[in-house]
Amino acid sequence: MLAKELKPGTVVNHDGNPILIGSMTVQSPSARGAATLYKFRGKNVLTKNKVDITLKGTDVIDEADFSRQNVQVMYSDPTHIFLMDQENYQQYELPLEDVAEQIPYITEALEGIRALIYNDQCIGIDIPASVELVIQQCDPGVKGNSATSRTKPATLETGLVIHVPEYMKEGELVKVDTRTGDFLSRA
Questions:
Q1: Which positions ≥6 away from 169 have C-beta within 8 Å?
Q2: Domain limits for position 102
């Protein structure tokens, strides 16, 4: 595939490693006849290291043998999380340290989890951009403070602590951004 056709979310082989393209910038030439440069920032899928790639628009790069399968969480133990493919019921297991960033957002009922499959091996998971979680514990709001946009810490059902507006109460459902860990809205 040509470099100018790459989009964020594509996985390509670069120097023998699978790279998940995260962002890209286009640098237009300043001189006549110069080539447009495409700068990609990605992540090595196996080692999780950041990678910067610069290519001309006509350079050819191979797509990796990579797929995303819809899965659901079966259970987890102290060292691994176990997933099941929703189409063919194949089971995958991942060490918890490989998915440590996503664990605070995962509940048993979470829909939209996708397993990242490379060469028939599950190497990670992809979760939705936002999830809905229940507030388990937070301090009560003080009457009269609702006019300002003050926040207070709240512990969610998964143990994640985020800052929510002062008017929120225990038992309410909130929407949380999984990329930043920020409160988005009531759900």
A1: 135, 138, 140, 141
A2: 66-126
